[in-house]
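# nightly structure sweep
# worker-07 picked up a monomer target from the shared queue
# config: single-sequence mode, recycle default, output format = C-alpha cells
# input follows
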Amino acid sequence: MAGDLIVANARIVTAEAELTGSLAAAGGRITGLDEGATGLAGAVDFEGDYLLPGLVELHTDHLERHYTPRPGVRWPAVTAVMAHDAQVAAAGITTVFDALALVGGRSGEDRLETLRPMVDGIRQAQAGGMLRAEHFLHLRCEVTEAHVLELFEPFRDDPLVHFMSVMDHAPGHRQFADLAKYREIYKGMLGMTDEQLDAQTASRIAASRTYGVTNRDALTAIGRERGLPIASHDDETPAHVAEAAALGMVVSEFPTTLAAARAARQHGLQILMGAPNLVRGGSHSGNVSAGELAAEGLVDILSSDYVPVSLLHGAFTLAGKGGADSGIGLPAALATVSVNPARAASLGDRGRIEPGLRADLLRVRLVDGVPVVRSVWREGERVA
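# output follows
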C-alpha cells in the first residue's frame, strides 16, 4: 500500500466486521485495506484505536442556533456557519445536512430574511474552503405554514438542497399527541400565559386543518419532480405512514409510536430516530423511546438532531459498548450513522471503509465507555 495517508495498527470497522489492520488513501479515496501490520514509513500509528467511517448527519437544526444565538441577534453568517461546522466536525461528522425550517415570521419574506443569509453563508464558506465537513441542505417544510410554498420557491433549484421533510407540528397529534406535554414544553419555552397558549393551540390546529393536506401534496410533488429524497416527520399512526408511502416518501423521521415504526418497516421506509433520545434513554416529548424501537430492529438511521456529539455516542450505545448489556454489534450500529444515511440521501461514494470510496475517516478511542474523537479526515485531508 502507498498513498497520501497510511494508517497502521488500527481497529478498523467495516460494514461487515471489525479487524486489526492498515489502510491507505490517495487522492481523497481509500486505495487499500489490509489485515495485519504494515512496515511502510510514514504510517500513522493508531495504537489500537478505532478507525471508523466519517459520520453522515441527515437532520441537524444546529446552524440556526449559531446564526441567532440570542433573540433579536443575528451573527455574521459565514462565521456562524464556521462555528457550527467546527462543532460538527469535532463530533466526527464529515457530511452534514443542515436542516432549515420553512416556518415562522410574519410573512414569507420575513422568514426569508433569515433563511437567505444562512444559505448564502454555507455557500460562501464552502466555496472558500473554510469548512471541515461537506454541507448540504435539508429543507424542513411545515405544512401548517400558510406561506410554506413561498418559502420553498427560492430554493427549489438550489444545488445545495439534497433532502426534504414534510412536517405538521400542530398540537393534538404526531409529536404532540399529548396536549398536556405540549403545554408544559411551550409554556416554559415561550413564557406564555394560559390564555395566550390556548389561542396559539387553537390557531395551530386550525392551520393544520386549513393548509395541511394541500401543502403536503404540493410539496411532495415538487420534491418528486426534483428527485429529492423525502421524509415524513413524527408519524404517529399506521395511517400517517401509509399516506407518506403513497406520496413517495422514503424515510420516516422520528416516528412517535411503536405502531408507526412497525408500519414504516412494512412500507419499506427507512426509520430515523434521534441519538439524544437513545443516549438519554427516552424522548423529551414523552413519545416512544429509540431504545424500544432498536430492541425490535426498528432503527435504520440515527440523527444528532439538536446535539451533534450525540451521534457517535448513540451509535456506540446501540452497539452495546460502554457498559451496555447487549447490542447489535459495532458494524451494524455504525451503519445507522454512516452507510444507511448516505444511501438514504443517494450518496453512494461514502459511509463505508472500502477501497474506491471517499477517505472520510475517524480515529476514535473508547474512554470509560465514552467514544472520543481524536482525529478526523475528510477525503484524506485531516480537518480535526
